[in-house]
Amino acid sequence: MIAAMLLVTPLGHGAPGTAKQLATGQSEGGDLVLRCGLLINGLLDEPLADQLVTIQAGRITSVESFDNVRGKITDSAVMNLSGFTCLPGLINTHVHFDTNPEDAADYGIYARRTFGQNLRLILDNARTTLLTGFTTVRHVGAWFPDAVYQARKLIDQGQAMGPRILTAGPYLTIPGGGGDLTFPEIPPDQIPSESQQGIASTPAGFATRAEAAILAGADFLKVIASGAVFSIGTEPGAPEMTRADIEAVVKVARKYGKQVTAHVHSDQSGQDAILAGVDSLEHASLLEDDTIVLARDHGVALSMDVYNGTYTDTVGRQQGYPAVFLERNTATTETQRVVFEKAYKAGVTLLYGTDAGVLPHDMGGWQFTTMVERGMSPMDAIRSATSVAAEHLGLDSDIGVISAGKVADLIAVRGNPLENTNTLRAVEVVVKNGFLIKTSNALPQ
Ligand SMILES: [Zn+2]
Alpha helix (H) ranges present in 37-108? Predict the structure, then answer.
């Protein structure tokens, strides 16, 4: 699936002899000059042709027409991406690095993995995610939040390869709820204590858990308003946390200037979460028309995993996911896609989010095509994963757009993704913070 090679040294000024550490760090930035055949900057409605992007110390210093500099720069200093389209580094607002899709065939794995194994899994998934073009992710809840904090730290320090991670820490969830690690395969006395940090059953209890998560390092908070599709003994639609529970979490988040996102399938819990003041909803599968309008009017964004149903139905069946998961998947997939169509038409803010963890981490770019099939313009689909996501996350002064002054996160795909969104499934060039992380074997070496 990935037809490209990985460079293990950054191209600092294009000098191969000046080998530095693996190009992972955010504390320092690299230098690079790219010539992009087309450039989608993340904001404009139309792509720009033949642009030169100059990067110094991890920031974009200029974006200009190549004609302006023709003859003034030496070709050898420029990475020639003439047959490619450059875009801002992608942002996925719905990932879980401490799970893989095949875990759904046996959730007992979560009681057997050690902290070290969880950390390795998270770092493997983080690396894969970066190599598929996602330079920033929102990690919306973990069963192993401490391992995610550790992975975030290693990546930030440049000791491991991965995207910029914003993490919610633990799931805030009721006992036995969609975020509680209570599965038939796991005996109650073997449920890892690390997974229990967000469990409460009253507003006061949730406030305490929310505050603890922020003090432990959460960048935002995640509530399980209603149960998961892949759960045992709970209904996907049934509200779990009450509006008062969610309000208590939102109040704590606001005190610290943090956002709250809610896992929601049912219409009722969608309404509860919106009225409780959350900033975004994941899934939003069963929202009715009035609730879609309510989301828009309250400025609540939706992060909908509209490709996943297809993956689960094919691969999940082969891998032997429990029958109840497959039935629920079938029941929610088409409904959710119709909600997506309506939400787009209504002008709701839509954030690119794939529920990676349920979807394999190397398939982050597969959802663009489904979004377009369901009525979204290709440019809006790209903006949902770049400028729109960055703005929602409060990171738009740094990322989400290719323009002078921004952090140099950008990717390139062969051809034109506005004509064929499937090109975003095979990102061939990845630059994070000015470091070349991945380059195409189609380029002259
Ligand atoms: Zn999720």
Answer: 66-69
